[in-house]
Amino acid sequence: MEIKLIKNVLEVNERQSEENKKIFDAHGIFVCNIMSSPGSGKTTLLQKTIPVIKERSRVAVIEGDIYTTRDALRLKEFNIPVVQINTGGGCHLNAAMIAEAMKALPLKDLDAVIIENVGNLVCPAEFNIGEDEKILIYSITEGDDKPAKYPLSFTNAGAIVINKMDLAPYCQVNIDKLKLEINQHNNTAPLFMVSALKGSGLIPWTDWLLSKIENKSR
Amino acid sequence: MEIKLIKNVLEVNERQSEENKKIFDAHGIFVCNIMSSPGSGKTTLLQKTIPVIKERSRVAVIEGDIYTTRDALRLKEFNIPVVQINTGGGCHLNAAMIAEAMKALPLKDLDAVIIENVGNLVCPAEFNIGEDEKILIYSITEGDDKPAKYPLSFTNAGAIVINKMDLAPYCQVNIDKLKLEINQHNNTAPLFMVSALKGSGLIPWTDWLLSKIENKSR
């Protein structure tokens, strides 16, 4: 009984995810679902990414948080559409939440929607929300042993951004070991080593994102 | 229907948690449930805590991970009972898992059980597992804005350990702001500022833990 219901929840979510994707596709909008642990720098990365993306495409953001509108407020200065979803305790965004948020977005006037998921390395990876790509942000401070411990987030990712590389010299982390283990779980996703805070290593990442956006809207 | 089932799951868990606690109490065993985001240093903290605790009490560890036995292996050198639970995708430990793990522990010969939960700042806080105290480990690298964004983990904690203080000088983090916000969500839990990696600030933490263990076994 229990298992059946959980399956139903995932099925209902998957159907809504497909509906969302159809609508995004019809508008030629590239959608990415950004996932990570809490405090790995998703919003800081967006603060450095949006000004670059904005030059060449029309972008909106959906911010997912359990509580507060803090992340949305940090993007205020960019003068782009930002919708904040508060899950009120929920550990991940689901497709129904995105369907609601889409109603508040000017879809006809957009090339890309960046969705920042709830900070959680486990649950968000199980729920498709209508995205073209899942993107994993991983802080180097989380160590070199996590891909095998949290495999779904790594396996599902269309791109992986290793953030806070400026802190690497002060952490006990073996970057070669981390890269090798990521490769064992996902050998197709491009890997970007950046420091969002310092603004370093970002050009390959924003180039990749722009190429994805431009391929979709073409 | 859906809501009813979720309520049942929590009720069943709560009953099992009470059963677990009765058994731990009957043996005078102090039990703590250690929670945090992935990579905040729970296992490293245990590696520095266990040698001190072990001097004065008989301690066992239950390690919770989605996959791998890596964390359990890191505690091998201490020659104490360690049980590894793999949730196989599950985002938190529940009381039934602990009931199973208890069967593998020599309860008659223990004063304390330290349970390391799955790395997740959201879901573990919702499930009691038979513990006396929930303990939140928080890495300073996660920033100063998280208590209001993830309130349950902070509110529920009987003690809060801020780890990786050695990295604070390299992060854009306002420690006074963080302390103030923690205090708004929990003004009773003691707050320990430590670097598990460097071994600094640990004495007040291990003293607190030992006093809890000794109060219970008395």
Overview of the structural elements:
Chain A is an alpha/beta fold and 218 residues long. Chain A has seven helices and seven strands. Chain A has helices at residues 2-26, 42-54, 70-74, 95-102, 151-155, 175-185, 202-217, and strands at 30-35, 59-65, 82-86, 112-116, 133-139, 159-163, 191-193. In chain A, strands 3-2-4-1-5-6-7 form a seven-stranded parallel beta sheet, sandwiched between helices. In chain A, β5, α5 (151-155) and β6 (159-163) form a beta-alpha-beta unit. In chain A, α1 runs parallel beside α4 (95-102) and α2 packs across α7. The radius of gyration of chain A is 17 Å and the shape is globular. The mean pLDDT of chain A is 96. The A-B interface holds A 1-2, 5, 9, 37-39, 65-68, 70, 89, 91, 118-123, 126, 139, 141-143, 145-146, 148-152, 164, 166-167, 170-172, 197 and B 1-2, 5, 9, 37-39, 65-68, 70, 89, 91, 118-123, 139, 141-143, 145-146, 148-152, 164, 166-167, 170-172, 197.
Q: How much of the sequence of chain A is in beta strands?
A: 15-25%
Element order of chain A: H for helix, E for strand: HEHEHEHEEHEHEH
Query: What Rg of chain A do the Cα atoms give?
Result: 17 Å
Question: Could you give the count of β-strands of chain A?
Answer: 7
Q: What's the rounded overall pLDDT mean of chain A? A: 96
Unreliable residue runs of chain A: none
What portion of residues of chain A is helical?
Answer: 25-40%
* Chains forming the largest contact: A-B, 39 and 38 residues
The main pleated sheet of chain A reads as:
7 strands, parallel
Separation of termini of chain A?
A: 46 Å
Silhouette of chain A: globular
Kindly report the oligomeric state of this protein.
homodimer
What structural class do you assign from the helix and strand content of chain A?
alpha/beta
Number of discrete helical segments of chain A: 7
As laid out across the biggest beta sheet of chain A, the strand order is: 3-2-4-1-5-6-7
